[in-house]
User: What shape does this take?
Amino acid sequence: MANGLLKGKKGIIFGALNDKSIAWQVALKAHAEGAQFVLTNAPIAMRMGEINNLAAACGNAQIIPCDVSKDDEMQQLVSKSMEILGGKLDFVLHSVGMSMNIRKGKAYTDLDYKFMHDTLDISAISFHRLMKTLYNSDAMQNEGSILALTYIAAQRVFPDYSEMADAKSLLESITRSFGYHFGKRNKVRVNTISQSPTMTTAGSGVKGFGTFYDYAEALSPLGNADAAECAEYCISMFSDYTKKVTMQNLFHDGGFSFTGFTEDVFKIGKED
Ligand SMILES: NC(=O)c1ccc[n+]([C@@H]2O[C@H](COP(=O)([O-])OP(=O)(O)OC[C@H]3O[C@@H](n4cnc5c(N)ncnc54)[C@H](O)[C@@H]3O)[C@@H](O)[C@H]2O)c1
Assistant: This one.
């Protein structure tokens, strides 16, 4: 169902780990819609080599490793991407998140602060680092689009989402603050998409993810949005049809965020 929505557009896509990743789906759809882009991920995430299959499926897209917590790697990524793509960028997807406290099963009431600093740096401050690098390198085309992915735990408490909730709040705040400056200078829009729970490596790493997923499914009139559907929303945000949408947190969650109660939720746990 490709419509050439991104024909001639150039970009960078962060975070495609495997074919479950939201970024993986975005890359496939961006390619189908006519975009050219560079793929990137942390060097350690590339060890399995799966990203090479994605690059091949996307017209031999170039891959540049970048740990988003490193200033020099970010600068190299942006400079090299402009060289490879032959000019400024029209779109950038930040699809990155990591929490060692969650991985190690640390309770929110007993966080390790070294881990927490890393979580905030990798999952939120990296979005500022990315935009600062793009801004100072004058790397964005006027009317370009920058997107990051977030979760509703930034607004409401989901206890097992732990410190990632704090990281997402910061991510959404950085989106508004940098969105102002990028909008004023280049008419570049900056937004977050707040996505349903999705069966990915990062998603299913959260304790109790299955219960979480079923609850959201039952509370959403349209049901949970999957990774491919999220990718379609990302493409629309990179297209020329959303030029005046900026500094927003956009819910892509089947209606979950505005639903108070459903019969389906009531039935959960009473079914056996
Ligand atoms: N899966 C969900 O339920 C869900 C829901 C809402 C939002 N999100 C967000 O979507 C985004 C993508 O996650 P996903 O669900 O596709 O999972 P994923 O595990 O496929 O992607 C997370 C990516 O972050 C990358 N990453 C981690 N540390 C990095 C670093 N230091 N430098 C560069 N990259 C690094 C990983 O290598 C991986 O590719 C994240 O921001 C996540 O919080 C996910």
